[in-house]
Amino acid sequence: QVQLQESGPGLVKPSQTLSLTCTVSGGSITTNSYYWSWIRQPPGKGLEWMGAIAYSGSTYYSPSLKSRTSISRDTSKNQFTLQLSSVTPEDTAVYYCAARRYGWGYTKDAYNYWGQGTQVTVSS
Questions:
Q1: CA 4 → CA 25, 27, 28, 113, distances in Å?
Q2: Given this model, what pLDDT does residue 117 score?
Q3: DSSP character for 26?
Q4: SS3 content of the chain, % helix, strand, coil (to 5)
Q5: Cα(13)–Cα(18) distance, rounded to whole angstroms?
Q6: Which residues of the chain have pLDDT under 70?
Q7: Nearest to 87 by CA among 57, 42, 44
Q8: In whole angstroms, how far apart are CA 124 and each of 13, 35, 41, 99?
Q9: What does the pLDDT look like over 14-31, one tens digit per residue?
Q10: DSSP secondary structure of 64-100
Q11: Is 111 within 8 Å of 105 (Cβ atoms)?
């Protein structure tokens, strides 16, 4: 069974870069047709899809976050990483990694696999 686990700092200062890693077990991030996404949920708000990296290594980003977001992967470690630059307190959220076949979705039910989520707070 595929399992995902987010890791990274829980507190980031404004203007810095947030960096999170998702470690995948029970399956490979290069498995054909799978897309590996980052999704966040600010307090009191809905889910926001941020971007994804495909099994091929191609990347896709939300237009609203594209200028600040970078997703990469390390196939030797079966991990993929999110970097979000120039963070502000509005970037405070629970950050999730998730996976599904053939693209991405905007609801929890759209994904086959989810990490447990990690709280990131942006504050000085």
A1: 7, 10, 11, 7
A2: 98
A3: S
A4: 5, 50, 45
A5: 9
A6: none
A7: 42
A8: 5, 34, 21, 32
A9: 999 999 999 999 999 999
A10: TTGGGEEEEEETTTTEEEEEE-S--GGG-EEEEEEEE
A11: yes
Residue with tokens 């609801």: 107
Q: Which of 49, 51, 43, 50 minimizes the C-alpha distance to 94?
A: 43
Q: Residue 45 corresponds to which tokens in the numbers above?
A: 């708000």
- Quick one: pLDDT at residue 20? 98
pLDDT for the residue numbered 91? 98
Tell me what pLDDT residue 64 has. Answer: 97
Residues in the chain: 124
Q: Which residues of 50-75 are buried (b: 16+ CB within 10 A; e: fewer)?
A: bbbbbbeeebbbeeebeebbebebee
Confidence at residue 84, expressed as pLDDT on a 0 to 100 scale: 98
In the block, tokens 């990296």 appear at 53
CA angle 106, 95, 83 (to 5 degrees): 100
